[in-house]
Specification:
By secondary structure, the chain is an alpha/beta fold. The protein has a domain of 195 residues: Glycoside hydrolase/deacetylase (TIM Barrel). Helix content is 41%, strand content 9%. Strands 2, 3, 4, 7 and 8 form a five-stranded parallel sheet that branches. Strands 1-6-5 form a three-stranded parallel sheet. Helix 6 links the parallel strand 5 and strand 6. It is globular. The termini are far apart. The N terminus and C terminus are likely disordered.
Amino acid sequence: MLLKSQHFLSHLSRAFAALFLLLVSGAAWAQTSPVPPASTTPQSSRPNVETPKPATAISYSAVHVDGPFIAMTFDDGPSEKLTPELLDILAAHHIHATFFVIGENAERAPQIVQRAVKEGHEIGNHSWSHPAFAKMSDPAVRRELQKTDDVIHAAIGHSPVLLRPPYGSITARQKQWIHAEFGYRIILWDVDPLDWKRPGPSVVESRIVRQTRPGSIILSHDIHPGTIKAMPETFDKLQAKGFKFVTVSELIAMGKPMAPLETGPENTNPSPSSAASMSPSATPSPSLTNP
């Protein structure tokens, strides 16, 4: 009987030992088992990275628009005799234009500048004395602009946002610092009737009507009698063709990017992405009186 009890205890001890080894090996396996990889961050929870926006153009000779919109501009005034006549014509045709004024002239006739703004027209800076900026130092250009800016502000209560350099004479570097310092957009043109040569009203009218397209910025001058005489028929014909007149700032606000042209064997050059910063057509030498 004693032998049987000893034999049973021996078997029980071996069973406990086997169970202990099993538990120990299980714990070791759990510690060495690979940990499953952490879940990746969902795409929706990642921070959004904004796509860089295209740089805003600072110089325009025309604007790509959806629609028959154009901007009529007049330089070198105000003329105490001719500009009021032009304002009457514009009012009769329900047209708003942009006037790039000479500071000396605006100082002599602030009431004309005030009337233009009251009737919905836009005023831009055309320098104090009409020099060629590209041949001048930065301080000299700055004085021309600031004096004119001050006169315009005194007349209408705010500074202009547009600059037309006399003769279209301005360097790329000047455009950059003038825009940075004054906030001006530099406005050139794509329609030039050469009215400063005084070819006669009918020639001025025909050149403008022939050259104008949607988005055009039309150059002319409110200091030449022939230009003023040309305007009624010019406006009539442009309106008959479906064109709608806006100020330069309104035209720029309507601007749309231009889709590139498809390339192929007969067309290897894509179109520009915008009509901004185009060179002015038929720009006269700075040695001439206008524009």
